[in-house]
Amino acid sequence: MTASVFFGCTFIAFGPAIALFLFTIAREPLRVIFLIAGAFFWLVSLLLSSLVWFISVQISNKESAVQQKGLLIFGVVLSVLLQETFRFAYYKLLKKANEGLLALSQEETMPISIRQLAYVSGLGFGFMSGAFSVVNILADSVGPGTVGIHGDSQHYFLSSAFMTMAIILLHMFWGVVFFDACEKQRWWAVAAVIISHLVVSCLTFQNPEYVTSLVPTYIILFLMGIWAFYTAGGSLRNLKLCLTCKDKDFLLANHRPR
Fold first, then answer.
1. Shortest CA distance to 177 belongs to which of 215, 125, 249, 102?
2. For a tag on the chain, would you pick the N or C end, based on fewer CB atoms within 10 A?
């Protein structure tokens, strides 16, 4: 493998997320702080799920392939449930923090809206999730070794990059839908986020049959993107105005809290 594979896969995996960060978050210190805090919450959820999984492996029969596969599935499910639990905990914390900022602020409106918090925290979750998903793969992409030399798929790195990009964007969409559902107490929407997260995570068990994992994942990504778009107050009209740069208020960089 060459450096071009490394940089190409990195660009595919993190390119859209970095662009979103630079254009919508980087210029606002408060948003940067909330994004880093969201990444920290995701990291804590990973630490707890890893600890439980490690203990489970140590007390299990390591020579039993069936038991080890069952523990792997258990670890994935536990990790997803803990991630969503910490997403809810972060939502509650942000609500309290926003109320405190409003009390300290001399303005009548909140310094940052719940919709913006949902977007920023979701992207924070996605960044950290993507980093842990693909960092070891990217390290291996510079060699030594040749992918597919024993007849395996040669699209391992490319498929991993596209899956990482989907996971990052999905976390952003899940955050928007999840926070809105908590605000309006639509618990069926919260359940839908958790179920779709479980489905996407379990689809990775289909690898190395990458088509059977990537295609359903991107279908879910497309549907969640539409859901998050309308949840955030989007419509076909303001999407058209945004794409033609005629509606500056629709852009997050100029979005007023409400």
1. 125
2. C
